[in-house]
Design goal:
The complex is a heterotrimer of chains A (about 375), B (about 280) and C (about 300).
Chain A: H1 5-10, H2 12-40, E1 45-51, H3 59-67, E2 70-76, H4 79-87, E3 95-96, H5 100-108, E4 112-113, H6 128-132, E5 143-156, H7 168-171, E6 180-183, H8 186-196, H9 206-219, E7 223-227, H10 231-236, E8 242-246, H11 247-254, E9 260-263, E10 271-279, H12 285-295, H13 298-308, H14 315-319, H15 323-326, H16 335-338, H17 349-364
Parallel strand pairs in A: 1-2, 1-3, 6-7, 6-8
Antiparallel strand pairs in A: 4-10, 5-8, 5-9, 5-10
Chain B: H1 14-37, H2 54-61, H3 63-96, H4 102-114, H5 117-131, H6 145-168, H7 172-180, H8 185-214, H9 217-222, H10 230-240, H11 244-274
Helix pairs in contact in B: 1-11, 2-11, 3-6, 3-8, 3-10, 4-6, 6-8, 7-8
Chain C: H1 4-37, E1 41-43, E2 47-49, H2 55-60, H3 63-95, H4 99-114, H5 117-128, H6 133-152, H7 169-193, H8 197-205, H9 210-238, H10 242-247, H11 255-263, H12 269-296, H13 298-301
Antiparallel strand pairs in C: 1-2
Helix pairs in contact in C: 3-7, 3-9, 4-7, 5-7, 7-9, 8-9, 11-12
The chains are: A alpha/beta (about 375), B mainly alpha (about 280), C mainly alpha (about 300).
Chain lengths: ~375, ~280, ~300
Amino acid sequence: MTDQPAKSITKPTSRRSILKGLGAAAIGISFVGKKSSAWAAEEPKLNFYNWDTYIGETTLETFKKASGIDVNMSLFATNDELFAKLRAGNPGFDVIVPGSEFVERMIQANLLEPLDHAKIPNIKNIAPEFMTDAPFDPGRKYSLPYTWLVIGIGYRKSKVKSTPDSWKVLFDSDEYKGRIAVMSDASELFRNCFKYLGGSINSDDPELLKKAEAMLIKQKPNIKAFHEDNGQDLLLSGEVVVVQEYNGDIAQIMTEDEDINFIVPKEGAMKQQDTLAIPKGAPHPENAHKFINYIFEPEVGAEITKTILYPSPNAAAVALMPDSYKNNPVVFPPADLMAKCEYPRYLGPEFTRLLDEAMTRLRAD
Amino acid sequence: MAQRRAPLEYNRMWQMRLWLFGVFFFLYAPLVALVAFSFNNSKRNTVWRGFTFDYYVKLFNDQDLLIAFANSLTIALLATLISLVIGALAAVLLWRYRFIGRTVVEGTFMLPLVVPEICMGVAMLLFFTRVLPWPNDLPWPLSLGSIIIAHVSFCFPFVALVVGARLASFNKEQDEAARDLGANDWQAFRDVLLPHIKPALIAGGLLAFTLSLDDFVITFFTSGPDTITFPVKVYSMLRFSVTPEVNAASTMLILLTIVLMILMMVMQSRGQKKG
Amino acid sequence: MATRTQERRLAFLATALPPIAWVVVFFLAPLAIVWAYSFGQNAGLTEVDISGTFANYTRALQPLYLGIFAKSIFVAGLTTLLCLIIGFPVALSIVFASEKWRAWMLLLIMLPFWTNLLIRTYALIAVLRTEGYVNFTLEWLWDNASWFMTLVGLQPLGDFTPLQLLYSNFAVVVGLVYVHLPFMVLPLYAALDRLDRSLIEASLDLGAGHLRTLWSIVVPLALPGIISGIIITFVPALGAYLTPDLLGGPDSQMIANVIERQFKKANDWPFGAALSFLLMYATFAAIALRAYYSRGSAAPGHGI
């Protein structure tokens, strides 16, 4: 509050104007106050757009008890669905769970709301490397890690001749002819090929892509299926013996069949995060922040992890998990192999088109 | 010599019976297995591990699935009703009147049958976000409006086809006679045409109901956070963790179908007794 | 009081306006938007710039995509043919069944049709996969045959290798036939139902065998129904997406799968729009051809 006694003496009319100004300011403040209190008093609802079975069994209920907010969870099956739904305009979602590569795309397409870290004090529970090592969202302005994953090789121990510790088994050899399944997503398939061919996950060299495509076309007679996220079922039911899959998915079926194991190939692989983010135009941003903060509570995180068994970036939650999880080399692969893994960056529309055409050619042969 | 079979009794021929048996076995064996595995005591669906009702219990406690199911039924019901009106009007229009551009109109009505589902799905998505935004917080069931509209668009041609086929066998002169005798067009429609096309309306209605209940692609593109439907929910369950709960849900759906069909047959036979 | 003509006109409008308005607003308009998109290109990640370019169509007519079109047409055609061959006797049997049986048979044919497509396809997976019912039965037969042969003193058969039925073109065709069979049976039944049976009896009395009667008398008279059945089966089979997606193998992609990828992973909506429209033009051409053909031969086949 500025003090201007001198002015009031020299300019008589200025007091009136000061009063006017104060009055206007007062009205203005009360106006703003009304607005922000209206925001704070959002209706107690939340629209949560999530993957199926990707939340704890009681998480939403306990959140409602703790905060009074009713969570309405809808499901999507792939990141592309999520993106397709949002690109035409947010139909009312408050919290979404995009993969890390899509976070980058969505930031570029201006589809995400920046997160207010001050409203999410439980960020302190997140293992620090996840806050700093996030090339797709520097400073974690728009997203926070929910789970992390790495792609590797799931295999049936009794049916393999030796531990399949290289991508060669899937991409370049007929050792398991007719009993191989690889991923059907162009990015996930080809980029891991890049690793095998000595390149980087984020290489945008068309020549390297051509080499990978030629190699896979040669390998195609040995491949049984291009699976879309159900590779672990194929392995479990005996359709295939080696499969390219996420470590979390394999960890889930390992509880049902002890003959199954997982390994990250020695050339390195693609690692991923599934993140929590708030799309632009979310009708309940305050509730969204509260929900995200709640998820990073240690007990809540532990409960979620118990259900979905994926690697969790929530260090406090991991501390509460049993040893069978904490020391599981499938859930937390050895550091030397993880050091060779990279997050996928969004390489632009032109390379995306090249990837898709390569996939079309591969499938058309 | 063996008893001479009447010439048209195809069903007495053993080849025919074998063929029929084969076809019905082919159609039903997978479904029977599906129902059987709904009692499977295993989280995954791949190997039999013992008998249990657990997944039915889970089904009836699964709010999301039940809501999705209710949504699908509501959409199917409303879409069928609207399709019946629009389809019947379309069929009558083409049958009763001659006007300029009739062939074009006829072709346009049949267009939804040949458009790939995915094309229609995207078209509806664009339409309901860019041209005619459907408000997000309408009360149920109005919130399902965009899906219902999309469903009507691809269901009514089927109704029109079925009703049109029935009308083709109707003697136009009866209709004209009624009108000449002083009944206005509406009365002629109500008292002469309507009774005749009633079986076609029932058949067309059932067809529309089925198509709507079964649809996935178009529904996916037009649904939003509050309007998840049964096929979309099942698809995401299939993609992720296929538990026998999906089988249990399908079994319930099949049961519902059987009940509805029996109902329809009862209604039809009653209608025939009256007429 | 309105005059007769005025009242008639009013009735005409009342009949014409609802369906026409609906079709224009809720069908043609959305399609027009997609049509416009096919002449556009991606401007940034979410916007599409309608620039009147033909680039998408040029790209769609490359051999890569034309080949996929051709393959889809082949698969759909094969499916339709199989449905016709399998479904015709079934329709015949229903038509000639007694009243009581007929209702039951129609019900039984329709029932699988009412089950959700996803679920039916998923049920087929359980049947066809390596540890599925087909292989299970075959293995049981194999083992018993082997046991029998040892009993009789012969060498037992070797180990049973399960058939790889799933994730192949075979599985896709089986799946498509499974899903579309009821679609074919109904129009066939409707057409055969209207047939004048005395003609068949006459033909048989005159000495023609069953097959000859079928071919020369029944099929031509039921032709309109057969053609309806063919169209109702072929068109959806051509645009099938879920079945090749769930049951198909590495080389089983059909045109609908490619289109779906454009709208999802590849994020190239203009190209997807162009592909969809090419598919539609092809279908229209086929139907127009059929309409032209049947108009020429309309006279002789018409109600005897």
